[in-house]
Amino acid sequence: MDNKTIYALSTVYGKSGVAVIRISGKNALLAIEKMTHLNTLYLKPRYAYFTPIYHSVSRESLDNSLLLYFKAPHSFTGEDTVEIQCHGSKAVLSSILNSLSQLTDYRLAEAGEFSRRAFYNQKMDLTQAEGLADLIDAETIEQQKYALRQMEGGLRNLYDGWREDILRIYAYLEAYIDFPEEEVPESIKESILNSVFKLIKAIDEHLQTASYGERLREGFRIVLAGPANAGKSSLLNAIVKRKAVIVSDIAGTTRDAIDINLDINGYPVVFTDTAGIRSSDNPIEQQGIEIAFEKIRQADMILAMFDASTDTPEIFQEIKKESKNNLLYIANKCDKLTFEQCSEFEKQGCILVSAKYNKGLSALMEKISEYISGNFTSDSNLLITRQRYREALQECVENLRRFNFDKEIELSAEDIRMAARALGKITGQIEIDEILDKIFGSFCIGK
Asked: Mean per-residue pLDDT for 350-359?
């Protein structure tokens, strides 16, 4: 990262009533000096100034804009920052960006560079930066709520607390390394081992929530599975209230897994319609059935759907072996059943629906919503939202488990140091440029 002043459009490029161009760096005030008539000596931070904007070279008028100045370190990046709020036409944006490009030591920002500078200037840690990225990408209320919690430092405080405990243990060990003639007292050994045990237990419990946070970001996966002509595609169309998939009386119409995204009470959900499970000599249909079983194994919830007029839940014995207590039986075509038959299916825990006549859908959606909110709530600040968090936590636990006093104390101390280093990878408290490139490279240019 160089020391040049960077600039970029922070709003979507295209026609809009207002757009924001952000400038950050030691020469940020140069833009005000060269492109307005404002005197920077009397400029008040965090005040909005309505001013004409001129081209830095040709001096032609470009727009009338609101201009704000944020003095370092009290800005998003921790550097001097200027924001130009102008009209959002392509002509205005192009002309202002061109004017900025003419200024000395100015350059266009790279993807995520504003947030990266905020990290380097200790305005946020990596978990907060990724929370910001999640907030920008949030499409549902629950995603928004949890991203805000992560930005407020919930994960950072948890991981920093564990890291401080580990470093405290490391400090004890280093002290005895510096004085090799001193034996580690048994009381100290017992205290350290007890602390390590508690850390392992706490991190293991936290790791059990790993998939919950990732699902909150990526979507809760619900798979519709069952025999051909059970009505899976019809049910999915009824749920999303549009013709999302082809419906036909011809068995084997659905030959691939089809994903449909939906927002259920603020939770992102991905419904997957799969090929009907049956014996078939058609190689394409066989491949579709294999994909169906793969989706079933990956599912968070399986809607095992069958034609209640001809089948029973017993046909799902093979799928039940694949499930993890997340199987919900859906008895379709209940309009063809007698009252006694309906009662019998309800006793077996089935949800009665008629995809054709939209019956039972409310009860089904309520059941799905209860399951999701009960297992994937965002009320906790402690959900793991990224694979790299999980890998670092697992690395930390592995090093802690290797720790003991049966080997040289230098080797024991190294186990503890590596455990602390693994946690530091999450928040960014060690040199990890390769991780930074991966994280901030996924941001948009103006962020």
From this structure: 88
